[in-house]
Design a protein that fits this description.
alpha/beta, FAD/NAD(P)-binding domain, 2 domains, 5-stranded parallel beta sheet, about 30% helix
């Protein structure tokens, strides 16, 4: 029997776990398609942005990862369109035919229709975003050391983080730790008191998906780090260096970090009726897209309502994508053998967020942790979630240096772009 060709679009948590597990079954020939030639670990992007990790610590090339997998191939190129009647997809590198097609393309930044925010804010979705943010922050610091106008210097040194979910909390906390422990050493020309970090959100709480206890503890820790937390503040516009809120308040800043929302990536070629809330693709209990027998979706991009405990869909978390990818690989082998598939049921392992050095919260099934214990759990979980041993060793080394010294030597400006004039 000839092997079935499985084409996976997207090499994030869902796609890489599906490919890795399915590659053990020689009844399948697998092609992973991605616009990047590497897998990366999104939960640690903010540490790349703040200079505590190198980009290579959280990234790994697909082709090196696939070297010893005879039935697994990689194709570089962005997805363009699917032709379901022809069992074919078009990518920027050419057409690829399939027997089974799996979309694992994840999400993209949602600016909620605010064009000025899209043009002027800095997102946090890709490695390029993280490096751009690091370059941007460091350039502004250098400019501030030369600026004599106190008002403009304050604007250069003010940072607004929009979105008080885990990413927003973690990036604002890390920035606060940097300014607390590194600022005087790196920039003796400036006063630490001039730096202002704002964490803003349209909701009345931080860490909305987590427990009330975690929310309250996190809010207290953030304010203890000197972060000004502004809740019930929905961003309305960002133009000419001014963040404007729906309630009429404003903040002058050259840096708006946007972590406020995501939407599923577009999948041209699929009918509109298969899209649900947030453009997520509607799937059945086996991650099969509604109306199709051989096209699937896993992870953030899909919306499954058949799981009894998550009838409004699963949270867009890494663990959901990982578990769906592995379950789909298992089901494909079962289908190939003529056996009944297994419906997906999400095993919720909990949620955690780091706030700063020795500061974190963790909501695990039936348990709640804070402080150093939660911080240690966060480190362990994220360390062993990295794709390869090499990444784990390098990341562990950098974390130990940062933990012992409260410092790191990775604050490089790595672009050659000329400085933009302040607004």
């Amino acid at each position: 029997m000839d092997p079935k060709k499985v084409v996976i679009v997207g090499g994030g948590f869902g796609g890489i776990n599906l490919a890795q597990k399915l590659s053990k079954d020689k009844a399948f020939e697998i092609v992973l398609v991605d616009k990047n030639n590497y897998n990366f670990f999104p939960p640690l992007l903010y540490q790349v942005a703040t200079g505590f990790l190198e980009a290579s610590n959280i990234s790994y090339p697909f082709r090196k990862f696939f070297q010893e997998k005879a039935n697994l191939r990689f194709s570089l190129g962005a997805f363009e369109k699917v032709f379901p009647d022809e069992n074919r997809i078009a990518t920027e590198s050419g057409d690829i035919r399939y027997d089974y097609l799996v979309f694992a393309t994840g999400t993209e930044t949602n600016y909620f229709g605010m064009e000025n925010v899209r043009k002027n804010a800095v997102p946090m979705k890709t490695v390029q975003d993280a490096l751009a943010l690091r370059n941007h922050i460091l350039r502004l610091k250098e400019r501030a050391t030369r600026e004599r106008d106190a008002t403009l210097r304050k604007k250069l040194l003010s940072i607004v983080v929009a979105g008080a979910g885990p990413t927003g909390v973690e990036v604002s906390g890390m920035l606060a730790e940097m300014h607390k422990h590194i600022f005087k050493k790196d920039y003796p020309e400036l006063n630490r008191e001039e730096v202002k970090i704002y964490l803003v959100d349209a909701l009345p709480v931080v860490l909305n998906p987590m427990s009330e206890k975690s929310q309250q503890e996190t809010l207290a820790e953030l304010r203890g780090l000197g972060i000004e937390v502004l809740l019930d503040h929905a961003v309305k516009d960002y133009s000419a260096g001014v963040v404007t809120f729906a309630n009429g308040a404003t903040i002058e800043t050259e840096t708006l970090i946007w972590t406020s929302g995501v939407t599923a990536t577009s999948l041209p070629g699929l009918p509109e009726q298969v899209l649900g809330k947030g453009k997520r693709v509607l799937v059945d209990a086996y991650n099969r897209i509604q109306g199709f027998e051989n096209i699937f979706a896993v992870g953030d991009i899909c919306l499954m309502t058949s799981d009894a405990r998550f009838q409004n869909g699963h949270p867009q978390l890494a663990q959901v994508a990982i578990q769906q990818g592995r379950n789909l690989a298992h089901n494909m082998s079962l289908w190939r053998a003529g056996s009944a598939p297994k419906a997906f049921e999400y095993n919720d392992k909990g949620t955690m967020a780091i706030i700063g050095i020795n500061k974190a919260v963790a909501d695990l099934p039936g348990l709640h942790f804070k402080g150093f214990i939660a911080y240690f759990l966060w480190l362990v979980v994220h360390l062993f979630s990295l794709i390869r041993y090499r990444n784990q060793v390098k990341t562990f080394y950098n974390w130990m240096v940062a933990f012992l010294t409260r410092d790191q030597s990775l604050r490089f400006i790595m672009d050659s772009k000329p400085e933009k004039p302040a607004h």
